């Protein structure tokens, strides 16, 4: 009975986190449990994963929830010293006072990291969290902190010694060091994940899995706010762009093919109707020309939205074949054409870096000035926007209370075939502070575009 | 009827056929067999999705029936077709005076049926592994067809009646995720996402697949490949490319993977100029030979 309740609760939690788990899939999972040996926790995880999780981006959420609902251990686990002994240990007061227990752990950790022994690391993490994870501030209810464990173990400082050990005499600075460093960094990342997961498990024991799940679960990658993404997320997002572009291109190709018949070819239809006594039995159609717009991108590359501009440009360039031409103009409070930096074959990330250092985009203040940027664009590049152009403006519409140049922008929009403004801020933040979102929205339709999913939907619409 | 007795059994028998499955893969394969459900395998190109199906066939002594999907694949190519030329011949060669009904019954018989992979797999009585390769390349209509076949394992041929699987084949669908498969299809399948392997597993794969390579070189190789995969590349190196690289190094009789050896052979793993330049920069390779 307990297993059944847990099963149902787990499914509920998955659905709550946005995974589309159907009734049939839940039944499959339950059936899978009956044929497996349930002693093996990883087999249980595999059984749930294979029956319930059908998208790779949902896997992270699933693993977090699985660890909460089916914890690897209860309490301190087995190999910890009895409670009395632990209570006597003084709390760490600072990094300067050496703590023999922590030092011993660090020594063990050194060997474990060197061998990449994950089972050993997990055991050590469990002990470390039991010893150092309790935060002393709130006496009646236990709280657990990953930060405290991290600073007690302080694994980063082991790095230099580990590298020395691994390289053992080989020359530094070369390839050998790079690969070794890479492998060790990966192990440290795994360690950090283990600590977080273990702390979550302890929290869940105190507060209940449901409550911890609410805080612990992160949205899947495609729904991650680009502006709020951490450095790791950004790297992951960048990796997701190419597969996404490929998916979009396939879908667009299918769409173009679906409506293959073009307008009625009147002349040929009438000519053919002569052989049937003037009755147009067969109609003829002109072949349809695939419509390929020219893309002109005006992007705000000031610090606050640079990461967003980066992604949109990445995607636009990955989909280059869908457009006849792509031209990019970047601005902060000055505007410059940067298309040249994005020559075919050049990495867009590098191009972004070169652009910020070499292009003439900052004038005086270094703060975004939309009005000046639009005026400059209309003045310096009057012929760029034509009837075949799709004009795309990227920015958060925060003008630092500067001028807006609405008439100029209206003229540009008039000249273009279509115009859109992508705003990476959530809609509820529009018009707060110096945001001129709805003022601009009246001239150019503004679209909220916070994550990869919204960006993909928009690009599909555009091409 | 079951092919495997436990996940551990599945792992051991796949390993005997030189397919090194981790615990997750082994459990999933075991479940697909035990629950009698099709297995949908997704992942980047070259991580051994098709190999998995072949390995299951080899491990269980089953025959592999393969349906390669492509754009424009239709029922006639996937399921069955009437051999109408032969039917026409039969009608022309009808003896004088034979009644039409007899002819009709005659030309819609098994002799004139061209069974395509799906029907073949269903009608076989020996153990069978049905591999539906690159499912994402087909049109959406074919997915509908697959739904019908894979949920009930039966095919209705109007002239002959319903053919039900005498013995359920072990079905593996693979997809490169160039397009999202429909929810309905995913729901009916067990799902396995094959990603690039951990360095440890990849090293074992290299050692198993490339005879003659030393442990040290294999270790260096997979660490370097892991470093390459961590870069932002247009196309990350796959397992297949790691193996090619290992073979190349063996052929060149390189006993260690140093900067120079990498610079000379980088084209084996990275196939875009921008990727090569980026790798050269990040790994600190001598760039003279690239460009």
The total of beta strands of chain A comes to: 10
Proper CATH architecture of the largest domain in chain B = 3-Layer(aba) Sandwich
The most extensive interface between chains reads:
A-B, 48 and 52 residues
Fourth-tier CATH superfamily name of the largest domain in chain B: P-loop containing nucleotide triphosphate hydrolases
Number of domains of chain A: 4
Shape verdict of chain A: globular
Question: Could you explain how this protein is built, in words?
Answer:
The complex is a heterodimer of chains A (463) and B (291). Chain A is α/β, with parallel strands linked by helices and 463 residues long. Chain A has four domains: 2-69; 83-218, no CATH class; 238-258 and 292-462, Rossmann fold; 263-290, no CATH class. Helices cover 52% and strands 9% of the residues of chain A. Chain A has helices spanning 2-16, 23-35, 41-52, 59-69, 83-87, 100-115, 118-132, 146-153, 159-167, 175-207, 209-216, 231-258, 266-273, 306-318, 348-358, 370-380, 406-415, 437-441, 452-462, and strands spanning 134-135, 143-144, 261-264, 285-287, 294-300, 325-331, 335-337, 389-394, 418-423, 446-448. Chain A is globular, with a radius of gyration of 29 Å. Chain A starts with a helix and ends with a helix. Chain B is α/β, with parallel strands linked by helices. Chain B has two domains: 7-79 and 116-193, Rossmann fold (3-Layer(aba) Sandwich); 199-281. In chain B, the strands form three sheets. In chain B, strands 2-5-8-1-9 form a five-stranded parallel β-sheet, with helices on both faces. A two-stranded antiparallel sheet of chain B has the order 3-4. In chain B, α10 packs across α11. The radius of gyration of chain B is 24 Å and the shape is elongated. The mean pLDDT of chain B is 87. Chains A and B meet through α2, α3, α10 and α12 of A and α2, α9, β9, α11 and α14 of B.
């Amino acid at each position: 009975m307990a297993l059944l309740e847990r099963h149902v609760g787990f499914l509920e939690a998955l659905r709550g986190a946005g995974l589309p788990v159907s009734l049939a899939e839940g039944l499959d999972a339950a059936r899978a449990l009956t044929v497996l040996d349930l002693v093996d926790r990883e087999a249980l995880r595999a059984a749930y994963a294979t029956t319930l999780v059908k998208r790779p981006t949902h896997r992270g959420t699933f693993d977090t929830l699985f660890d909460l609902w089916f914890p690897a251990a209860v309490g301190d686990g087995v190999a910890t010293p009895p409670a009395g002994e632990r209570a006597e240990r003084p709390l760490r007061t600072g990094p300067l006072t050496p703590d023999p227990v922590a030092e011993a752990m660090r020594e063990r950790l050194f060997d474990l990291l060197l061998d990449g022994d994950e089972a050993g690391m997990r055991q050590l993490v469990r002990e470390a969290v039991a010893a150092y994870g309790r935060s002393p501030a709130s006496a009646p209810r236990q709280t657990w902190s990953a930060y405290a464990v991290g600073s007690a173990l302080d694994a980063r400082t082991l790095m230099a010694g580990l590298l020395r050990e691994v390289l053992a005499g080989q020359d530094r600075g070369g390839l050998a060091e790079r690969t070794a460093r890479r492998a060790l960094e990966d192990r440290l990342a795994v360690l950090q994940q283990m600590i977080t997961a273990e702390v979550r498990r302890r929290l869940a024991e105190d507060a209940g899995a449901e409550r911890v799940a609410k805080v612990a679960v992160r949205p899947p990658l495609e729904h991650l706010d680009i502006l709020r993404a951490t450095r790791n997320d950004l790297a992951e997002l960048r990796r997701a762009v190419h597969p996404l572009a490929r998916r979009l291109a396939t879908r667009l190709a299918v769409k173009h093919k679906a409506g293959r018949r073009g307008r009625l070819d009147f002349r040929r239809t009438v000519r053919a109707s002569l052989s049937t006594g003037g009755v147009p039995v067969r109609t003829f159609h002109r072949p349809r020309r695939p419509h390929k717009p020219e893309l002109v991108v005006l992007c705000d590359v000031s610090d606050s939205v640079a990461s967003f501009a980066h992604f949109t440009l990445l995607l636009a360039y990955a989909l280059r074949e869908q457009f006849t031409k792509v031209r990019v103009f970047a601005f902060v409070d000055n505007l410059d054409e940067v298309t040249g930096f994005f020559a075919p074959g050049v990495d867009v990330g590098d191009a972004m870096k070169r652009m910020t250092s070499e292009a003439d985009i900052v004038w005086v203040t270094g703060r975004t000035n939309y009005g000046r940027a639009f005026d400059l664009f209309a003045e310096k590049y009057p012929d760029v926007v034509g009837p075949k152009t799709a004009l795309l403006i990227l920015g958060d519409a925060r003008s630092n209370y500067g001028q807006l140049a609405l008439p100029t922008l209206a003229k540009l929009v008039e000249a273009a075939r279509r115009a859109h403004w992508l705003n990476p801020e959530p809609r509820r933040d529009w018009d707060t502070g110096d945001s001129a979102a709805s003022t601009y929205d009246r001239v150019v339709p503004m679209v909220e575009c916070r994550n990869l999913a919204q960006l993909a939907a928009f690009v599909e619409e555009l091409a | 009827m079951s092919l495997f007795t436990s996940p551990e059994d599945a792992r051991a028998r796949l390993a005997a056929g030189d397919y090194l499955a981790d615990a997750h893969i082994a459990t999933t394969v075991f479940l697909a067999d035990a629950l009698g459900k099709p297995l949908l395998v997704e992942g980047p190109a070259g991580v051994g999705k098709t190999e998995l199906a072949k390995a299951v066939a080899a491990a269980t002594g089953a025959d592999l029936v393969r349906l390669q999907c492509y754009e424009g694949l239709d029922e006639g190519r996937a399921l069955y077709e009437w051999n109408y030329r032969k039917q026409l011949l039969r009608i022309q060669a009808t003896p004088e005076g034979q009644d039409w009904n007899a002819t009709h019954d005659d030309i819609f018989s098994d002799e004139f049926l061209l069974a395509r992979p799906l029907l073949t797999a269903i009608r076989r009585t020996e153990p069978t592994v049905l591999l539906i390769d690159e499912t994402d390349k087909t049109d959406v209509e074919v997915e509908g067809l697959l739904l019908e076949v894979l949920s009930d394992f039966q095919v209705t041929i109007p002239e002959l009646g319903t053919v039900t699987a005498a013995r359920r084949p072990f079905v593996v669908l693979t997809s490169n995720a160039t397009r999202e498969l429909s929810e309905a299809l995913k729901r009916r399948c067990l799902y396995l996402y094959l990603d690039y392997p951990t360095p440890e597993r990849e090293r074992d794969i290299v050692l198993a697949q490339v005879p003659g390579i030393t442990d040290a070189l294999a270790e260096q190789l997979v660490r370097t490949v892991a470093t390459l995969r961590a870069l932002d590349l247009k196309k990350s190196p796959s397992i297949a490319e790691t193996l090619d690289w290992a073979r190349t190094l063996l052929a060149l009789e390189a006993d260690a993977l140093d900067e120079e050896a990498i610079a000379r052979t980088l084209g084996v793993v990275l196939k875009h100029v921008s990727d090569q330049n980026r790798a050269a920069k990040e790994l600190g390779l001598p760039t003279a030979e690239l460009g």
